[in-house]
Amino acid sequence: MKKTVKTIVAAAAASFMCAVPTVASFANVPAATSITASAYYIPNSCEDIPDDFIPNLSYYNGVYDTGVYSGAHVDYKKCPGGVEVYRIDVADSRIKIPARVKINDVEYKVIRIGNGAFKDKNGTPNGMGAALTKITFSTYSELEEIGANAFQGCTKLKEIKLPKTLKTIGNQAFKDSGMEMVSYTVENRQPVSSLETIGNEAFMNTNLTKIYIAPTTTTIGANAFNNTNIAEMNFAGPGAELTIQSEAFANCTKINYIYNNRRISKNSSTAAFKNCNSNLKNAVKGNYVSEFKSRLGIK
Predict the structure, then answer these.
(1) What are the backbone angles phi and psi of residue 259, rounded to the nearest 5°?
(2) Which of 145, 227, 258, 268 has its CA 20 to 30 A from that of 42?
(3) How far is CA 195 from CA 19, 81, 84, 137, 205, in A?
(4) Is the four-CA dihedral 270, 262, 145, 132 of positive or negative sign?
(5) Does residue 39 register a pLDDT over 80?
(6) In the beta sheet, which residues pair with residue 185?
(7) What tens digit of pLDDT does each residue of 229-254 get?
(8) Whole-prediction pTM value?
(9) Alpha carbon distance 80, 91 (integer Å)
(10) Are strands 82-88 and 74-79 parallel, antiparallel or unpaired?
(11) Degrees to nearest 5, angle at CA 131 with 126 and 132
């Protein structure tokens, strides 16, 4: 990986980072075809890598033992249980994250997007290069966590499809981003999710208009969706009790429909819907309606 686009393009003799000759495959998954090599760095060329592509990583900039490994336009660091995405090349605006990578012929699961990995990658002159506009994950993704501030300030990133293995969205992970839609893997016409925790301010100041809270989710952090454009909400169930913390949906003045199928924990905040529209009490439908309104301060 190089630090500037100019340097990248100038390196005509350098190997194309996607041109990793060894492609491993998962059990019962056909091996992917190799990606064509090029003498020039081509931004976004790893967006359409096959789902079972496993890049061989090398040390960052060829420097031994830096703790950062590069391959397929992405930098990684080892972490407990696998590797985490550290950052992507400055020239790239679209990227696909593989399920696994290889370091010295050993496979590692990609289990985490690191803290601040893409923070402020919005195309402004801030050293982060091209604005991030699209990120996708391999169908076989084993991602478990999106770290704190991972996509904060990515104003051109409009949507994301969460891997079904994802358990945690960290504090301020998408705060101040351009996020308009969050979707899930669908199987048998139903969203599939392992998501347990949505952190504080995770989607604050975004452009979301609809949200689906999975039955597996047990905690929605303070200010998680504060000041968004949410109009419709679905708290899917059945599931464990859900704790919704202070001002999680404050200043969401466009809410007109809430479908609830979850028990709400008594540890939830009565200020969860602070400064929302005055007709909110009539917007709640579904099950446990009285409990939902009383424990979240909807009058």
Answers:
(1) -105, 125
(2) 145
(3) 34, 18, 18, 16, 21
(4) negative
(5) no
(6) 192
(7) 999 999 999 999 999 999 999 999 99
(8) 0.85
(9) 29
(10) antiparallel
(11) 125
